[in-house]
């Protein structure tokens, strides 16, 4: 089973900010959703670039506790090694969940000195994100 984070939505009300974590568990054989849960609570940490885990992960972990079906792998809209300190939300989540995690970010999280070439124009094409000689991640064309 795969768990993919459906989203975390910030909501402001009465000078407080709340977050909503939505999770889906998907059967990896047929990609059918087998469970959905959500959890909302007050956000206790303001948004700071590079510190997303401290803001979102407490809500996500609370939502994971509600799951009846425990996933084998968790996918996040976020980064792991492609992070200024090589510890994005994906690394934090793996530690707390005790499960493998992977980051599937929809945007380029630019790290100074890290470069990539856009992949060729066909589905499945990919290139590496490299800084010096270290591979930080990959760019995948998935349309």
Can you give a write-up of this model?
By secondary structure, the chain is of the alpha/beta class. It folds into two domains: 2-106, archaeoglobus fulgidus dsm 4304 superfamily (archaeoglobus fulgidus dsm 4304 fold, 2-Layer Sandwich), CATH 3.30.2170.10; 110-142, no CATH class. The chain is built from two helices and eight strands, in the order βββαβαββββ. The strands form two sheets. Strands 3-2-1-4-5 form a five-stranded mixed β-sheet, covered by helices on one side. A three-stranded antiparallel β-sheet has the order 6-7-8, with no helix packed on it. Helix 2 links the parallel strand 4 and strand 5 (101-103). Helix 1 (52-65) packs parallel to helix 2. 24% of the residues are buried. The mean pLDDT is 84.
How would you sum up this structure in a few lines?
This protein is an alpha/beta fold and 143 residues long. It has helices at residues 52-65, 89-97; strands at residues 2-13, 16-26, 33-42, 73-76, 101-103, 114-115, 126-131, 134-140.
